[in-house]
Amino acid sequence: MARMKSRGSQLFLPLSVLAILIVINLIKGADYFSISIINGALYGNIPNILYGASELVILSIGMTLVTSSAGSQDLSVGVAATITSAVFVWVLVSAGGITWWTILAAFLVSCVAGIVIGSFNGALVATLNVQPIVATLIVFTVGRSIAFLIDGKLSPILSSNLTYQIGNAIPGVPVRTPIILTVIFIVLAAVLLKTTNLKLYSQAVGINQKAARLNGINPVRIKLLAFMIMGVCAAVAGFIAVTKAGRHDSYNLLRNIEMDAILAVAIGGNSLYGGKFSITGSIIGAYTIEVLDLTLLRLDVPTQAINAFKAVFIIILMVIASPAVREFAGNGTNWVRARLGRADQIPTAIGEDASVVPKSDISAKKEV
Amino acid sequence: MQTQNVLEMQGICKSFPGVRALHNVNFTLKRGEVHGLMGENGAGKSTLIKVMTGVYEKDAGEIKVEGKTIHFRSPEDAQDFGVGTVYQEITLCPNLTVAENMFIGRGRHAFVNWKRMKDDTTRLLSSLGIPARPTQQLSSCSLAVQQMIAIARAIDMDCRILILDEPTSSLDEDEVQKLFSLIRELKSRGVGIVFVTHFLDQVYEISDRITVLRNGEFIGQYDASSLTQFELVSKMMGKALEDVSQIKKHEPSAHDSSEPVFEAKGLSSAAGVKPFDFTIRKGEVNGFTGLLGSGRSESVRAIFAADRVTGGDVKMNGKKVKIGEPIHAMKLGIGYLPEDRKGDGIIAGLSVRDNIVLAFQVLKGFFKPFSRKQAEGFADEYIKSLNIKTPSTDTPITSLSGGNQQKVILARWLLTHLRYLILDEPTRGIDVGTKVEIQKLVLRLAEDGVSVTFISSEIEEALRTCSRLIVMKDRAIVGELIGENLTESNIMHVIAGGSEQTWPE
Questions:
Q1: What pLDDT does B251 receive?
Q2: What does the buried/exposed string (b/e) look like for B59-68 if buried means 16 or more CB atoms within 10 Å of the residue's CB?
Q3: Sequence-ordered list of residues with C-beta below 8 angstroms from that of A118, at least 6 positions apart, any chain
Q4: Residue B15 and residue A355: Cβ atoms within 8 Å?
Q5: Across the interface, which of B42, B345, B347 has its CB nearest the CB of A367?
Q6: What predicted TM-score, i.e. pTM, was given to this entire model?
Q7: In what order do the strands lie in the sheet with B334-337?
């Protein structure tokens, strides 16, 4: 029970935001959920959201792990994805013909590149104790230049039908490929968390590194691992992004996505200071951001103004989610509950402020 | 006027959803008296103090400061009425300097006069004999000095009511005396002082009156001179105290020829402990003793490789082993309960269950997580056997009282079925009942063949529990006491003598 409750409260925010956005969309037009089939694949608002959010969802998974163990964020994810996808394209082009096998090989090489980038960031953070934001700022700054060097400033075009099928749809499969890849990735992440102690270890490291070490956990290794997983996430996201686009644009590929990935983690109810986390929350957060983007488009907000609207929305969201407002809301519900006759359960409840206790206060300070 | 109550609390009630923390509690504090507030963990002392200081708003009851009814809405409110508090856990900012900590959040000025701040701090520190410089970063001071700075800060705020919540729990005997002379000085100036502690001797040494709470109820208010220690403990526990003298320690045969469970030669660590030799046999309970800062903790930390080991040979059951990281020690069946529970022990955000399972889980391996059911089973088993008071296994460990948190850490190590357990101050800041429980547990473990190293600042407790005591001074071993030589005065002699001395068996 308690578990359901605590998990429920963490997911309450992203889910309610998602619900509000969907209601807004339905008010705008009742055909929001309508789905059409073009060339054998499903299109419509929902499929488009799932399709558009693929890279963000994958990156937000890695970002959650980095946030949990390192207590800070990785700014280099979008840039890392640009580098890994440049590697992918480079291998593919140098291999000569594009077949499923060369694509697989190129993808694996790009994953290795992602792990190398992750290890670089991770080594700076875990062994040299550089603050993650500063450490990842290095790759963030230099990354797109490296991508230019790899793709030879040519923005190479992937003219193969196979890469088109990966970035869009495989004939005969109604669900577009990036959606399928995202689902596979989520399942793999779930399996990873289920079959290992990654969650317990990274939470322990994120909350109290000293105590974690005294319980036999190697904090350096766990942080390094988180950044390496982040690197794989970047490689997969880059792979999807470049096959979607059909060409490698070192300047614009997944530009600014790192901020959305961080936001997804926050909307998912995770503390950006690390520790406890919910990947489900981050994934919902990522989809919520995509829904928001598409909602603004659907509401005919001019493209130049979209970011302004997005900012306003995020401000509202963050205010609602802030501890101060939550405390206030908690007081409100307690007050209502007390009025509804639960007061007799609290023997000393006299006066209006009976049982009004900030939630955080109870969990932090109450003696049991 | 002299007898006028500076603080009067009548019929104070305070509830949290589902928990009645205080019920009809009365408390009065006279001008210039030291009033001991006693009770076991969870008796409501902390809650009462938080009501006094405006951290919590009372549900019912009346608070009068110097005869005027007052309703504190916030700690600032209480501060304005001259209520100063020093909490058990240090609530200063470790990354600021001593002077900044003295003055932070006090002045309502836009600008800071750094020079005056520094001068005032220097004056205050020297008048109280606190060994710290104003420009020193607080975290570079020892815990004891940090605590004294917190007290100095409260004193400097001209408080009429000073609340000391376990101020002595991290101080050694010498520093306690310094603090007490400070308290007496304040007392003569007419400050009313509320003194919360678990150390019975200290309460009697300094208090004029004692108020006892139990399970959130007011038990009574007594003159310290007319209440015996035995009566006091009975009132706190609600039953006659289990006679601690009945605790019978396990005396190993004098010439135990069995292989030592653990043996170290010339062990030293980066924390600055001088190379030392150490052995412990199966089922033995030994301890390190010495003043705070003598290197007791550093020694056991070196055994567990909690600090970086810089040299020495280690044998486990006669076999040469290498312990370079805590995980190596754990794999050999060694467990370590650290002195700093909050900083090194608990994983604050995690549940009681995760905190119990952690070490065992790490031993089992990264790729072999326990199922939820298994973890639940382990947690339930130890919550029951150690009598841990927690609403559920899912409760965050931080909402447990100090004693119960400590039991969770104990459970964590017992679960690993270890052969050698190191306990560094397991009973510090813990109520009498839990203390006795932990001591008994240690002796039971020893009977089962587990070796235990037990460190305690309370010499009596160490004498009661350990069959061999290693005396330390200035980060080196200066002597070892066993058998009938185990007395408080002998320990003092060894510490005072300082020379290499080993009592004959």
A1: 58
A2: bbbebebbee
A3: A80, A227, A228, A229, A230, A231, A232, A234
A4: yes
A5: B42
A6: 0.76
A7: B334-337, B420-424, B451-455, B285-289, B468-473, B476-482, B501-502
